[in-house]
Sequence to fold (357 residues):
Amino acid sequence: MKIAILPGDGIGPEIIEQAVRVLNALDEKFEMETAPVGGAGYEAHGHPLPEGTLKIAKEADAILFGAVGDWKYDKLERALRPEQAILGLRKNLNLFANLRPAILYPELAGASTLKPEVVSGLDILIIRELTGDIYFGQPRGVRECPDGPFKGEREGFDTMRYAESEIRRIAHVAFQAARKRGKRLTSVDKANVLETFQFWKDIVTDVHKEYQDVVLEHMYVDNAAMQLVRAPKKFDVIVTGNMFGDILSDEASMLTGSIGMLPSASLDANNKGLYEPSHGSAPDIAGKGVANPLATILSAAMMLRYSLNKAEQADRVEAAVKKVLSQGLRTPDIHEEGTTKVGTKEMGDAVVKALAS
Ligand code: IPM
Ligand code: MG
Fold:
């Protein structure tokens, strides 16, 4: 099985290194090929998603991705910025289903900014549509405003749109995921204002006919944002569009207290996927050896489960992560009094060791 390894920028290389060590410690042989992406791609080949990198990603069975982005590229034109690498991979590989679990490990209940009773035992799954919506809708740009009270001025504009088949396929993914969990799905929209999301709601309601064992509820995005901090445990699976999903998944990750713990998967129709930590490249701590590698290691576990069909190995990796947490090992982002502060490599060492035992 072939895995494309794309470390990217900032803390990307350090955390990917630990995840690769964990994969190598399993009793499976993986063929891995590493390629530059994001700012690193720009430095090496003048583009955030170099052709060679895209080719390696296309040919692989799965992609393990670190993070991209650094302030030093902020002045580049949009097409050359590091973020275009991840957007380009999603679009080129048709990775339309983004799975972002938000799980609160009991050992980390104190890390959340919310009261422990509100979040303890939290286990929700956000399914974000990833290749449509206002992120990719055309036309977009800056132009002379053609009409209305601001006619003649310059205006920026984007296009929110969803085709029926795009909504149907993500709805199927969401209903199927809910079926394997608590059988409750919340579809988040803004049907009270936006045509796109009234349509979304109608299509999700129609797809529901095939999944009568799953309880479907619809919720406006503003209310969902509120309910997520008010009573997050009421949610099981949430499905929403690209833009709302971007925002709500960051909010959900913070309920757990550490975005450094959360993996994610972006899948195509055949379960080929790209796996990355939910956090970003954190350039402020890059190279210091303090980044938390667990989200990336847990992303590798998701990769084993969803794309490589190695559920048993995935279970082992997840159990090893739980074990190091129960041993009290913590990187600075999740450190509390009474636990042992460790760096990126020590955390990787501990997971590798826990795998062996
Ligand atoms: C994410 C990120 C990306 C997004 C950025 C880096 C383009 O915020 O994966 O959530 O907006 O999708
Ligand atoms: Mg985001």
